[in-house]
């Protein structure tokens, strides 16, 4: 099935198979789970080489978050796509998502959902992935998570991007002419009570989220971003912490047993299949020759 999704044949298909088997033999995930992860990466448009190179980062994120490998692959590829980043950034995004979940009252899945909703707009507005996740972390700590957070942030940014929006007109009344989110928050902080009308102008969905960001403050969001800029290695560290226990050891044992079973059983499958097919052919011949009774 991986070959059909990625279009891999010959050496490329062997490379995919070898990667899945290696993960099954050396990690807590089985070869089947690794293959499912590779399939998700292939569906996202990665070729065989890119899928194999991305798989270790996805695996670390899955271990760190307790997600299924295929689910983690989907989160990483969706986040990369939303922010307009290439597969070479997969390791950075795995670390970023792991660190973001650790810093705030959220998890990798919800953070990925939020980033998928807001990422395109954020990238258009010039926000880095770290800045975007920093804002989403600030929202998460106030109870605004997942798709709700992403949708709210997307609406805030879209109104800031539109010079003709009511929100931009209200901001202009306060002397805030920029579309930069952090500068807008700083300007609203300085405006004090007079900022209320501008916040309300963002509407029922985006307004409360902007109020939450205002409560966190420009400096509060900056603290998240600073920590996220230092996220390198976070997925591996969290994966090590998550699997350094009996549950992790048992999962690793199960994966190793699955790898051994495959090594012993898989070579027998093709000869048995050929024998079954030959027997089926003989039975069909007997039936067509009238030697067997219906």
What portion of residues is helical?
A: over 70%
The helix/strand class is: mainly alpha
Kindly state the number of beta strands: 0
Cα(first) to Cα(last) distance is 38 Å
Main β-sheet description:
none
Cα radius of gyration in angstroms: 26 Å
The helix count comes to: 15
Blueprint of the fold:
Elements: H1 2-6, H2 11-26, H3 31-43, H4 48-65, H5 69-82, H6 90-103, H7 108-124, H8 129-140, H9 146-161, H10 166-173, H11 181-191, H12 196-200, H13 203-228, H14 234-243, H15 246-288
Helix pairs in contact: 2-3, 2-4, 2-15, 3-4, 3-5, 4-5, 4-6, 4-14, 5-6, 5-7, 6-8, 6-14, 7-8, 7-9, 8-9, 8-13, 9-13, 11-13
Describe the protein.
Helices cover 78% and strands 0% of the residues. The longest helix has 43 residues, at 246-288. Mean pLDDT is 84; it is low at 248-253. The protein contains 15 helices and no strands. It has 294 residues and is an all-alpha fold. 45% of the residues are buried. α4 (48-65) packs parallel to α6 (90-103), α4 packs across α14 (234-243) and α11 (181-191) crosses α13 (203-228).
Give the tags:
15 helices, 294 residues
